Amino acid sequence: MPKTFAPAAQENVEGFAGRLALFLKVCEAGSFSAAARLLDMAPSSVARQIDALERQLGSSLFARSTRHLAVTEAGDVLRQRGSRIVAELEDTRRAITGIERVPRGKIRITAPEAFGQRHLVPALGGFLRRYPELTVELVMEDAMADLIERRIDVALRIGVLPDSSLVALRLAPQVRVACAAPAYLHERGMPRRLEELALHDCLTMPGTPPSGWWSFGEGTRGKRLSVRGRFVCNNIDALLRAGHEGLGILHMATWLVGEDIRSGKLVRLFPQLPLSRGKTAIHLVRPHGVAPAKVRLLIQYLREHFGTPPYWDEPFLR
């Protein structure tokens, strides 16, 4: 195939669409001059475009005389089929612009299961009530899915983001607090200083056995402690349940334990210390490029719903 074929073909298609619309306007108006007045064009310009269309098709579309303009057989075929083509193009244009004006269609979202259950699903309920023509498909998984391959519009990710071509919006910091069930503290006592954690059972996720590391304070200025305990689990909800059962001390994000601390199911430790803020954060991530209107609305809604600071952090900032 010659290298010049594809660009030339594209130019011919683009030119054909405009000339076809002009041809139909001439048929409707009955003359070049009448069509020119309707379109605010010079009659000579209309004539040149029709000539170009006839050359492009290799057929005469009008039988012309000084006083009369008649559609030829080829022109009649083009008028019938062209009317349908232009109508379909207009329907397509309305459909696409309508999507932007009135958000409709499906949004595919992925999020970690623990956060999705507690915060994202309740937020999406309000979002769907506000935009009744939108639907949401939520995939809850802790693995980082390939957004392009899976055709995902928005991902909620927690942690340190890897370098990528994705567009990331920081939604909230990841703030951690130490806490424990009242039953555990009644049995083992309340630790008053961070160093006393070495005397307690601490609930950790698998890392470098038999110890884990907990950080307290702000970034690199914080204190990093080695902790250990008799229960280790790779599931965040199971680890939280172990804390409820009094198996040890937890060091978890406020979005996970905030409600339990407010209700008294868990007791916050070391309230005199600054909140633990590491490098991790909660982000909304989407593919690169201009985001569709429905995605922009979702991102804006989630930012407003969660707030700044997020509602789960507010009790710890008073």
Verbal overview:
The chain folds into 3 domains: 5-101, Arc Repressor Mutant, subunit A, CATH 1.10.10; 105-172 and 280-316, Periplasmic binding protein-like II (D-Maltodextrin-Binding Protein, domain 2, 3-Layer(aba) Sandwich), CATH 3.40.190.10; 174-279, D-Maltodextrin-Binding Protein, domain 2, CATH 3.40.190.290. 44% of the residues lie in helices and 21% in strands. It is built from 10 helices and 11 strands. It has helices at residues 5-29, 32-39, 43-57, 73-101, 113-130, 147-150, 182-188, 236-244, 254-263, 293-306; strands spanning 62-64, 69-71, 105-111, 134-140, 154-159, 167-180, 212-216, 223-227, 250-253, 267-268, 276-286. Strands 3, 4, 5, 6, 9, 10 and 11 form a 7-stranded mixed β-sheet that branches. Strands 1-2 form a two-stranded antiparallel sheet. Helix 1 (5-29) packs across helix 3, helix 1 (5-29) crosses helix 4 and helix 5 (113-130) packs across helix 10. It starts with a helix and ends in a 12-residue tail after the last helix. The model is unreliable at 1-11 (pLDDT under 50).
